[in-house]
Structure formats: structure tokens, C-alpha cells
Amino acid sequence: MPPWMGGGEMIQDVTLEGSTYAPPPGRFEAGTPAIGEAIGLGAACEYLMELGMDKVHAFEQEMGDYLYAELSKVNASFKFNRFCFEMGDFTYTRSCPG
């Protein structure tokens, strides 16, 4: 089955006479790989390592404590998952009157 789109890594070889498609499933995965995203992820990892993961963790804890304290002041019925504050995540449910 020939591919219906072209580009990216769906071509195995290119010559002056033509091209050879990659074997399935690669031949059906046209488009450029996420090169920019991979470079950005690498830069973010380097930044975090330079900063120090202990500092990143301490900041997440501080922000979680602040969020928990401030949302606890809201005049509404919130239920918090305190464990998520410690995991860099936040979930809640809110009961609305009526």
C-alpha cells in the first residue's frame, strides 16, 4: 500500500531517480518529527539541573502550601486532595448551593 502523504521520516532512501518508502508503519507517518520540542525539553532539563532539583522541590512545596492556605479561606465548600499538593498537582471538588 503506497503512502498518501509525504515528508518526514516516511522516506527510507532518496536518489536522483526516485525514492524508497520506509517500511510500515513508518511510511504512513508523514511529517517532521518534533525536533523543536525535543530541543526545548533538553534546554528545560538543563535549566532545572543547573537550578537544582532540591530548590525546584522546595518551591513546589512552598507554592502548594500557599495555594492550600489561600483556597482554604474562600467562602465555598472545597474538598482538597492534600497529597496532590505534594506532587506538584492540584485537584479539588466544589459543592455549589442550589
Structural topology:
Elements (H helix, E strand, L loop, with lengths): L10 E4 L4 E3 L13 H17 L1 H20 L4 E4 L1 H4 L6 E4 L3
Antiparallel strand pairs: 1-2, 3-4
The mean pLDDT is: 79
User: Which percent range describes the beta-strand content?
Assistant: 15-25%
Based on helices, strands and strand pairing, what is the structural class? Answer: alpha+beta
**Alpha-carbon distance between the termini?**
59 Å
Q: Tell me, what's the shape?
A: elongated
Helix content class? 40-55%
Enumerate how many helices there are, as a single number: 3
Gyration radius, rounded: 24 Å
What are the segments in which pLDDT stays under 50 over at least 5 consecutive residues?
none
Number of strands: 4
Strand order of the largest sheet: 1-2
Biggest beta sheet attributes: 2 strands, antiparallel
What is the N-to-C order of secondary-structure elements (H for helix, E for strand)? EEHHEHE
Question: What does this entry look like structurally?
Answer:
- The chain is α+β, with helices and mostly antiparallel strands.
- The protein contains 3 helices and 4 strands; from the N terminus they run ββααβαβ.
- The chain has helices spanning about 35-50, 55-70, 80-85; strands spanning about 10-15, 20, 75-80, 90-95.
- A hairpin with a 4-residue loop joins strand 1 and strand 2 (about 20).
- The model has no long low-confidence stretch (mean pLDDT about 80).
